[in-house]
Design brief:
heterodimer; A: mainly beta; six-stranded mixed sheet; four-stranded antiparallel sheet; 10 strands; 0% helix; B: alpha/beta; Peroxisomal Thiolase, Chain A, domain 1; ten-stranded mixed sheet; two-stranded antiparallel ribbon; 13 helices; binds zinc ion
């Protein structure tokens, strides 16, 4: 099996793939990016927090005109993660049609290979799919 | 109490593409016309605010002065995404408020040509062929289209859909009705980039860009410039009666940025900072949304306009869908008219120009000089813009006696 690397550092691939956030030790705000301090309370201490892999589609758009190289149409969504946290990701394994994709639908996280570098290492990204 | 500040002169170029002019030409044209409209000259200006996005490093304020009059006054070259022009107005307003100037000019200009849809260029390509995590997210490749979209059409589509999820009574048709209204309004505005009416069916059946926004529900790119001359009330009282008669009072000039909200890191929140700015502006002006005769608000996409009906308090909370369904924001309907100019959707949206163009439009309407698109009897108006990242500018103007 090819060597794999997460596409972003807040995606953990070991074991059951999931997202990990920086949680502000003072106020509980969650962040995915490298932090200098908390945007909510200005606290400077953070602890890692594993997020759940299920959630609800809070919003979506079906993209028909995209950046070069991105296949269309595809579904971009905002997902509220069960138990806390929110993330932007594509919805896969669904007909990209407004009659099919629904606001409030339940989804679960999945992963897919988003690219391969010259040494054969695969980048792995996350997305969501209907949880049924 | 600080003294009032007034708009003494205003001008804008038609928004279109100007392949034979540069952005300095456009800004100089608007500035010269605004000064003439105000009945003053560059020699009277004590401060200049210059708003431009795509040539923000170029020192355009100085370049324009080199064309129309170099007097050594302070120039503030400002950039604040789509609120850049409003920031230029705010900068001049602050200078007068601080007592450092009694008259100044704010200019907004942009030359975009055929840039295509708003947003960062193409997908960023990893320069190295061996993946290595870089940046604040430890990314090994560009995320556009892989982890959702950050391009403007999709971002504003998602903002609109989020409103639909939370409130109901809103769907593709309600968003499309916004575009139907603004394109219909634009037919009366000779300064608009497009003056073409579309039926609701044409809009809904047009090419989909990012559901629920079809092509006529997305603003075009274009070129243009606008300028306004501001004056302190004490200085205004020394000017001619005709200048005083045409002057329009600035009842509120407000700029906000986005406070922390839980989901803000995932999708820019265009609502909270607009609500905050509106609250401050209404308090400063001592009015409420019911007092507004017209609003120029930031309809970069049809989905965005609907949100701002609610954010600015123009409709019942959660009632933006019913508001557009009722036809209330149309001209010729009682109450407030929204985007009588045609809005960004058809008037156009040269980024740095837009915030100044909104103040021009309200000023022109309140003076009763808006020609075919005049809203009869308008006495109070609001100009609103929002730039992602985010920044919100609101100006409330009133027809009043100096
Ligand atoms: Zn905190």
């Amino acid at each position: 099996m090819a060597q794999q690397i997460p596409m972003v550092d807040y995606l953990v691939l070991d074991g059951d793939p999931h997202l990990v956030a920086h949680e502000c030790a003072n106020c509980g705000a969650l962040f995915f990016d490298r932090r200098n301090a908390c945007a909510h309370c200005s606290g400077i201490k953070f602890v890692p927090r594993d997020l759940k892999t299920t959630g609800v589609v809070r919003s979506f758009s079906i993209i028909y005109q995209a950046a070069p190289g991105v296949p269309v149409p595809y579904v971009s969504s905002l997902v509220d993660i069960d138990g806390g946290g929110a993330v932007k990701a594509n919805i896969l394994n669904i007909d990209p049609d407004p009659a099919t994709v629904a606001l409030g639908m339940k989804v679960k996280m999945t992963t897919f290979v988003s690219g391969t570098d010259d040494e054969g290492t695969e980048a792995v990204a996350f997305a969501f799919e209907p949880s049924n | 109490m600080a003294e009032n500040i007034w708009v003494l002169g205003a001008a804008m170029t038609k928004i279109t593409r100007y392949p034979d002019q540069d952005v300095i030409d456009l800004a100089a044209t608007a500035s010269i016309e605004a000064l003439a409209d105000a009945g003053v000259t560059m020699a009277d200006m004590q401060v200049m605010g210059m708003g431009n996005m795509f040539q923000a490093m170029a020192g355009l304020g100085q370049s324009v002065q080199q064309q129309i009059g170099q007097t050594g006054i302070p120039v503030y070259n400002v950039v604040n995404a789509c609120a850049t022009g409003a920031t230029a107005v705010r900068t001049v307003h602050l200078s007068i408020l601080a007592g450092e100037a009694d008259m100044g000019i704010a200019v907004g200009c942009e030359q975009m040509g055929k840039m295509g849809l708003l947003g960062p260029g193409g997908q960023s390509k990893a320069e190295k062929h061996v993946y290595a995590p870089t940046g604040r997210y430890g990314s090994v490749m560009g995320a556009e289209g892989i982890l959702g979209t950050t391009l403007m059409p999709g971002v504003f589509a998602q903002a609109g859909q989020e409103y639909a999820y939370e409130n109901g009574g809103v769907g593709f048709e309600q968003f499309a009705k916004v575009a139907e209204k603004n394109h219909a309004h634009s037919v009366l505005n000779p300064l608009a980039q497009y003056q073409k009416k579309f039926s609701l069916e044409e809009i809904m059946n047009a090419r989909m860009v990012a559901y629920p926004n079809t092509l006529p529900m997305c603003c075009p790119t274009g070129d243009g410039a606008a300028a306004v001359v501001l004056v302190s009330e004490s200085k205004l009282k020394t000017l001619s009666l005709e200048q005083q008669r045409r002057a329009v009072k600035i009842s509120a000039s407000v700029l906000t940025s986005d406070p922390w909200v839980e989901r803000g890191q995932v999708q820019p929140d265009v609502n909270t900072l607009t609500r905050n700015a509106a609250k401050i502006a209404y308090e400063k002006a001592g009015i409420g949304p019911k007092d507004l005769d017209l609003v120029e608000l930031h309809d970069c996409f049809a989905t965005a306009e609907l949100l701002h009906y609610d954010n600015l308090g123009l409709c019942e909370p959660g009632g933006a869908g019913a508001f557009i369904d009722s036809g209330a924001p149309w001209r010729d309907s009682p109450g407030v008219t929204v985007n009588a100019s045609g809005g960004l959707l058809s008037k156009g949206h040269p980024i740095g120009m837009t915030g100044v163009a909104g103040v021009f439009e309200i000023t022109t309407q309140l003076r009763g000089e808006a020609g075919d698109r005049q809203i009869e009897g308008a006495t109070v108006g609001m100009a609103h813009v929002i730039g992602l990242g985010s920044s919100c500018g609101i100006h409330i103007l009133e027809k009043s006696a100096a």
